[in-house]
Amino acid sequence: MSLPTSFADLALAPAVLKAVADLGYEQPSPIQAQAIPHLLEGRDILGVAQTGTGKTAAFALPLLTRVDASSTEPQVLVLTPTRELAIQVAEAFQRYATHIRGFHVLPIYGGQDMRAQLRQLQRGAQVVVGTPGRVMDHLGRGSLKLDNLRAIVLDEADEMLRMGFIDDVEWILEHTPKQRQTALFSATMPVQIKKVADRYLSNPAEVKISPESSTGSNIEQRYWMVSGTNKMDALTRILEVENFDAMIIFVRTKTATVELAEKLEARGFSASAINGDMNQALRERTIERLKQNKLDILVATDVAARGIDVERVSHVMNFDIPYDSEAYVHRIGRTGRAGRSGKAIMFVAPREKRLLYAIEKATNQRIERMELPTGDAVTKQRIDQFNELLMTTLTEQRDQLDFFYQLLAEFSKANDVSAEEIASVLAYLCQKERPLQVKLADVPNSRDFERRDDRGSRNERDSDRRGGDRKDKRERNKGPREDIPMDTYRLEVGRDHGVKPGDIVGAIANEAGIDSRHIGNIRLQGDHSTVELPTGMPKDTLAQLRRVFIRSQPINISLDAGGSPNNDSPYGGDKKRSYSSDKPRSDKPRSDRPARGDKPLSLGDKPAKKTRKPSDAKPKRSPKNG
């Protein structure tokens, strides 16, 4: 069977097709071309595909086509491992449903105000996107009703397994209608995920995508982590220092193209916007100006930049990070064409790190971090440009200088001032609007902390690129490959509040962006808990964590007065990181142990969701059915 070559070939709803056209999507990616027809037919899907290959659209577009917008009850449930991914998937659904009247999508995740989520669920939403723990909370409260659920999607199933959520996922699956449609997507297919697929999917269509490197080696790719200064100031510094011929700057919206182009013009750069609202004639004139060196910077959307091939484009700037790897590949492909070299720079906010990692995985290329140019670097660049202008004028305009030479010689003699003094005055007047000496505030540098935070993720991504399967979860839970100094923090929540170690891991990992392997020992007490975190936590990260709620209780995190752990922590040797309480560990087999709040738990163990009590505000797990 031949695969569809355009979205028009797919039996998508007209409103969905219109949104796809608005976004500039023309040809479905391999995962979309293979998965959409099966999902439109109502079949279950087992998909093996990396994040960033377009799989969100692969399940969102067909499921939106089958949604009944006249009913406000949840019809689609998407489970994701992290808060960030839940938000991104919900945003994608909203973009694709722009022309579906009465459509609502709701992201639900831990750390968000429960009361706000309850109000939104009461109003109704056709699609709910959430993390397993918070979905279970709402099912227990009865605030999330799945009686009319038509489809459930397990997104990044192997990541949910790695984070210890797979039992939660199975519990949720058991509390959904048996006649639902199920789509499971995973970057890899470990044994545990295959067992879940065999048990809960009915005769699934299997779709496997092996992404290959799509970007040229002749393009130097870098990113800057947005921190301490706004994007506009950072962009200005980069434009000052980067030796570019012409540049295309990508933003997400038509309005942003105009706003950014106007700001660049006000700062002395030759820039113009190009977007879908421009007629073809104006668009062509703008591109022609770029070709003829009458314009240096284009600020464009993905749609407007399609087909641009201008030889002098030496740089591409991703002012807004693209939502998927295909858009990224298309963007940076505007430079480095026909074997020429090019440079690509991308701004990445902390909450967008997942998008960066997805692009690296899908393109199988490392994107190097760059440092923002300092004030001294900008000053040096401006002085070099000033000197170059002086020499060029002396060489090319010498016959035009005689009059000024005579004029200034007379001025020097009449006022008894030297030629150097006159030159200094003239130089000052020339650069008054754009001073050669630049004083810029230092940008706070969180590089050291991020290096600790990202090391495990990057090593894991390297393994993915080589095609190797992820290591066994128990092995990885031995911790990072090298010692990390840890501090002990106190949380004002404990067993009395129904808190479990997984709640703490999930909240800290999602809210602070800390890899779960960098979270050390967790000790549950009655009214509080302690957790080990890397030494040197940034103040803004701690401030963010202090606003986090677990089980509807503020954690009020603070440095524990008891001091820091010693170097014999699980990160200093071969011990596995353990979660422990103030009760002795049981030697009974796991199936006979009490609930997780009454026993110590290691990351190698699966959460025991079966024995929840009514006081936990979650329903009792029913027996599994084959």
From TrEMBL:
Its EC number(s): 3.6.4.13
Claim: RNA-binding is one of the keywords in the record: yes
Keywords for this protein: ATP-binding, Cytoplasm, Helicase, Hydrolase, Nucleotide-binding, RNA-binding, Stress response
Intervals of motif Q motif: 5-33
Region spans: Disordered: 447-497, 557-626
Record-linked SMART domains: DEXDc (SM00487), HELICc (SM00490)
Top-level EC class as recorded in UniProt: hydrolase
Chief location: cytoplasm
Ranges where the DEAD-box RNA helicase Q domain occurs: 5-33
UniProt function note: DEAD-box RNA helicase involved in various cellular processes at low temperature, including ribosome biogenesis, mRNA degradation and translation initiation.
HAMAP family assigned: DEAD_helicase_DeaD
Name the UniProt record assigns to this protein: ATP-dependent RNA helicase DeaD
Organism: Simiduia curdlanivorans
